[in-house]
Structure formats: C-alpha cells, structure tokens
Amino acid sequence: MRLKDKVTIITGGGGKLGKAYAMAFAREGAKVCVPDVVSADHVVKAIQDQGGQAMSTTCDVSDEASVKAMVEATVKRFGGVDILVNNAAYFMTVKKSPFWEMDVEEFDKAMAVNVRGVWLCAKAVFPSMKNRPKGKIINISSGVALSGNPNYIHYVSSKGAVISMTRAMARELGDYGICVNSIAPGFVVTEGRQVDPEYEKKRNELRCFKRSQVESDVVGTALFLASSDSDFMTGQVLSIDGGTNFL
Prior knowledge:
- By secondary structure, the chain is α/β, with parallel strands linked by helices.
- The chain has one domain (7-240): Rossmann fold (3-Layer(aba) Sandwich).
- It contains eight helices and seven strands; from the N terminus they run βαβαβαβαβααβααβ.
- It has a seven-stranded parallel beta sheet with strand order 3-2-1-4-5-6-7, with helices on both faces.
- Strand 4, helix 4 and strand 5 (135-140) form a beta-alpha-beta unit.
- Helix 1 crosses helix 8 and helix 4 (104-129) packs parallel to helix 6 (153-173).
- The protein is globular.
C-alpha cells in the first residue's frame, strides 16, 4: 500500500473526480479528508464501506478562515497532513463569453477559487507538513492552460496561474522536503456527466488516443505524485490528456 497511513486532503472531494481520487488514495492506505462546499458524506461512506478511514468538512477554499478550520480539523482527527491535492475548482458552472464581454465578478470568482484557493490550502497545510519527514502537494491545473481555449479566459488564466504557482512553491518548499507538482488533465468525462456527442467526437479526434478521457486516466498520475516513487520530482506539470497538448 503506497500511501499507508498518509494523511491526505483532497479539496472538492464531494465531486465526481474528487471522489475518484479519494477512493483510490484510500485503497492505497491513506487517511482521507474530503472538504467541499457541498456535502461529501457519500464519499466518506464509500471509503468506510471499503474499510478505509475518511472524514468530510464544509470548506470554501477561497475563504482563509474556512481553509484554516478545515486543516485544523484534519490535524485534530488524523494527527497531521502529508499530502494535499488541490482539486477544488470553479468550472462546472462557469459562464462562457468572449473576454471583452465577461463580467468582472465572473472573472474574480474564478480567480478566487482556482488561484487563491490553491494558495490558501498550501499555506494552511505548510505548518503541519514542514514537521513531517516529507510532503506532497499536487495542484490540479488543466489542459486549457496549454491550449488557450476561447471564451472562458477566466478559467484558462486561473489554470495557467496554478502551473506558475506550482513552480514558485517548489522553489520555496524544497528545503523542507516537500514536493510540489501539477497535473493538467484534458476534458474528463466523469460518471453521469452529460456531454454533446458531436463535440466529444471532435475533441477525441484531436487526441493521439481516439477516445474520451475518464476518471481512471488521471487518478494513476495523482497516486504516482503522492507516493515515494516521485520523491525527487518537483515543480513539474504532467499533461494527462491522451496526447492533445505536448509540452
């Protein structure tokens, strides 16, 4: 079990991809906290049903007090933090438009959750991580940061900032043995997600692998970055999109 007894926080843990990360980490022996703005109790139950340890807490990653309370609750329950997966993001309900028509409030919301949230969560876990032998921070970016998809510049820009923050954090945290890396997934078709079949067909044609990307395509990379297999790797971005964008 690669993550036996490793205390892991997976933000946005109540969502489909968050749940996929959480279940996989728990199967590898991790003790998992799945904070979210919505209830993640169903994820906790699913982990407990498979014999794992998990907890949930309400958390708005864009709010510093909320993030601090979430980390404190995790430390109180499990004794510290070894791994942080910055998965929470403002995406499913983003409003698309040309950048010259976008409202400031919409732009700021994406930045608050997708950029400030990553920074606040990393900031909050650092005091606990620096006292561990080592730590892992995994920031979830997106392939759109590499391709520059049109009509949602707020989301694209926020995910580009995640890559830049990853590199800056890696420089600052190396002395503490903390690895900081980023994953840039393509469009993931999660369980039950409704997609336009024609648009998905066009998207798949752009890939080296001509099929839809699913949850399991990303989870293995997260496990690798969380495990000791990646202990000498930091400041990197791994593009996991079936060969759409090449770095």
